[in-house]
């Protein structure tokens, strides 16, 4: 019984380390994904609206008028 306990303990430690490693990897991938999404949105907005500055000014003034 003691030997089985020790074996399960070691296996549990290994699983926790692997879980932590995968969690860190997932966090890095998520950050990379967010950055790529941000870049894509920037490119799409530049493609759609070459006059980006004037469109943003109109949106911000109308939004402030509604509050």
From TrEMBL:
One of its GO terms (biological process) is leaf vascular tissue pattern formation. GO terms for cellular component: nucleus. InterPro entries: ZPR. Residues 42-67 are annotated as: Disordered. PANTHER family: PROTEIN LITTLE ZIPPER 3, PROTEIN LITTLE ZIPPER 4. This is Protein LITTLE ZIPPER 4. One of its GO terms (molecular function) is DNA-binding transcription factor binding.
